[in-house]
Amino acid sequence: MATSNSQLHSASSMQDCIDACSACAEICWRMATTHCLEKGGAHVRYPHLALMLNCAVLCRTAAQFMLSGLEQHRHVCAACAKVCAACAEDCGAIDDMQDCADACRRCASSCAAMGGEAQA
User: Fold this and answer.
1) How many Å apart are CA 57 and CA 29, to the nearest integer?
2) What is the pLDDT of residues 12-53, one digit of tens each?
3) How far is CA 106 from CA 25, 44, 102, in A?
4) What is the predicted pLDDT for the residue at 9?
5) What is the C-alpha separation between 64 and 104, in angstroms, rounded?
6) Which of 55, 57, 101, 109 could form a disulfide with 87 if both were Cys (CB 3.0 to 4.6 A apart)?
7) CA atoms of 75 and 118, how far apart (whole Å)
8) pTM of the predicted model, to two decimals?
9) What residue spans define the domains of the chain?
10) Do 75 and 58 meet the contact criterion of CB atoms below 8 Å apart?
11) How many CB atoms neighbour CB 114 within 10 A?
């Protein structure tokens, strides 16, 4: 039997996660396409830039899954939590990337809670 989102998570916690995902997607995309390109060096190395752009895409996808009301959001949120944690670590190791790292940490924490019931 399918379980509704309201049974899995409160509307407030889901909205908080949607907001965290949206904010993380926005800052990762914006910083990757402006700040990192302007700074050069470590900011534009392939692994870093690709991780930021893909993190932004996955955060948007997680938000869309939650907004759709499908219980499969749990699986996307679990993956998003892992990618955001990796992006936070990567951004935290590069100068002038603390805002992005902080947004990724917030999103990782929120998505980890939202994806907590995900099963393989």
Assistant:
1) 8
2) 899 999 999 999 999 999 999 999 999 999 999 999 999 999
3) 12, 24, 6
4) 57
5) 17
6) 55
7) 5
8) 0.88
9) 11-114
10) no
11) 29
**CATH architecture of structural domain 11-114:** Up-down Bundle (1.20)
3-state secondary structure labels for all residues of the chain: CCCCHHHHCCHHHHHHHHHHHHHHHHHHHHHHHHHHHHHCHHHHCHHHHHHHHHHHHHHHHHHHHHHHCCCCHHHHHHHHHHHHHHHHHHHHCCCCCHHHHHHHHHHHHHHHHHCCCCCC
Q: Which two tokens stand for residue 65?
A: 């899954």
Distance of CA 67 to CAs 41, 50, 109, Å?
A: 37, 26, 19
Tell me: the pLDDT tens digits for 82-109? 999 999 999 999 999 999 999 999 999 9
